[in-house]
Design goal:
The complex is a heterodimer.
Chain A (H helix, E strand, L loop, with lengths): L1 E6 L3 E5 L19 H10 L8 E5 L4 E4 L3 E9 L2 E3 L2 E3 L5 E3 L4 E4 L4 E9 L33 E3 L22 E8 L8 H9 L2 E7 L3 E5 L20 E6 L4 E3 L7 E3 L6 E4 L1 E5 L4 H5 L6 E6 L2 H21 L2
Parallel strand pairs in A: 12-20
Antiparallel strand pairs in A: 1-4, 1-11, 2-3, 3-10, 4-9, 5-8, 5-10, 6-7, 6-9, 12-19, 13-14, 13-20, 14-17, 15-18, 16-17, 16-19
Chain B lengths: L9 E5 L3 E5 L6 H16 L5 E6 L3 E6 L6 H17 L4 E13 L2 H9 L11 H8 L5 H10 L2 E6 L6 E5 L23 E5 L2 E4 L9 E5 L26 E6 L2 H12 L7 E7 H6 L1 H13 L2
Parallel strand pairs in B: 5-11
Antiparallel strand pairs in B: 1-2, 2-4, 3-4, 5-10, 5-12, 6-7, 6-11, 7-9, 8-9, 8-10
Amino acid sequence: MALEILEPGLATSVQDRGRPGHYNVGIPPSGAVDLYSALAANLLVGNPDDAAVLEAAYMAPKIRFTEPATVAVTGGTMPVTINGQSAPQWEALHVNAGDELAFAFLQGGARVYIAVSGGVEVPAVLGSRSTYGLGGFGGFDGRVLKAGDVLPVGAGAQVGDRSVPENLRPRFERELDIRVVLGLYDYRLTDKGLAQFLESVWTLTPVADRIGFRYAGGSLEWKERVQPFGAGSDPSNIVDAGYPLGSIQIPGGLEPIILHRDAVSGGGYAMVATVISADMDTVGQSSPGTKTRFRPVTLDEALAARAEARSRVGELRKALQ
Amino acid sequence: MTAPTKSESRYSWGGDEHLVVQISEAMSLEANFTTMAIANLLASRELDGIIDICPSNASFLVRFDPDVIAPADLEAAVRAAELEVGDTASLSLQTRIFEIPVWYDDPYTRETGARFRDRHQRPEGNDLEFAAIENGLASEAAFIEAHAGSPWITSMVGFVAGLPFMFQMVPPERQLEVPKYLRPRTDTPALTIGHGGCFACIYSVRGAGGYQMFGITPVPIFDPEQKLPDFSDFMAFFKPGDIVKFRKVDQAEYEQIQAQVADGSYRFRQAPVTFSLDAFLADPDGYNASLLEVLYGA
């Protein structure tokens, strides 16, 4: 069984749940930017959690199946067709040999996930099939897909009709409150700078990919100081340090950048907050132009939100048994 | 050099999955050494729930799963490790020293530098010339001599896969310092020897960059296909704590090493060493000479 890529989409890559454990040498976890939607797609087609799926940003691929299979499309809202006939998202779809899966324009969110029963069986690298583009490895040849690529698919399980209940599908808003834990180098901002960070309505720029999401819409005031040795001359510079996933750095105080699953692992810009794990999928489904405010929460609130997100995953599993 | 001054470290949460500990705001060999020692000690405890321990120049990052280890328990374990390291009278690091051959002033980085001259502080010259002037050295040759003369310690690996940041093992007054480009380039050849602030780096992959460019090495440092024998364990060669000696090579030797890399016969010249901070601080030049004896034989 294989997937033939007829049209590649804009930036389509193979992703699973990622390869944790090598961030200390600059290899980020990678994996699906919206882990919840990727999991839902796998559960719909009867795959294990860690099967590899396709993640397509903004424009999705056109795919031909060489054998019968079950597929599912989740994530951002994008009309789906099979052989030109409209087909639903968030449902298991049964396709035959030669069938073609295609998409119309994106209507909500930013990324769709396409799972096929058996999973995309590219070789695992460091325990994961996820593509890491900057490093040029993992996924299919370490890169985004091109027309003509043929992706091997494993042996899948037989599943019946399944769909994700409406209340367990993410909603995609164009105005977001993203919860953050303040800290890291936030003491480098003046009180006014911190207020500017939290009170500004930031707009996501087109510079938004698996590495990071860059926002515009304000400017922040930093405390003046004699910069420490090795830190660089701008007040937003620090001695190069590790960047947490989800951390928000603000080069020059102008454009906040949230690092995502292909994060650069470190550098010399002060970070002032970190997006909580429960809101990372929401950031990942933001499209350019999305208005975003950063809302501070405590670590305990972040942990409570994490537990809530986990119980939602529990409900999803129950619904798709 | 003066003895390290104890300063208050700073603990902070990076969301619900990261703990960041700043040992010092300023870069120094002592701060990096302390960072490395705490990171190594913490790693040796093999605590469940710790996903990554990433030492960087003067701080470290722990990525953890709060469903497995409670944040308070993690913080307690890290503070205990910090305390234990602080109580150790003499710190030493089990590491290795190896050689990186460099073709300084090569045509690849020179051409790239010329292409992005409008982003540079000194559009009329080249990066090496600029670095020599910035450091009060008489010539590019004198800068290269200082750069290749004393070993460097890998103070951090990251930004992208396998990219080392290195800090030279010399007294502060001899640290080479060069500002980054005014605006970053959109291109840098892979394996460029770069420099920004007080740090050297080697670009592990081709891509954007803002560091000054001094030369290029024929030796791969990141090899996802793990073709060379020195990559059989892992695809990235550098590890935090590695000690590096740059050696100036000419075009002929650069090409010769490139051919060895291509036919798979290249081996890094390397040797295990124990690095003692106190012994180094007492006599930096003498200590460095003894490290080089380990690398090249007495």
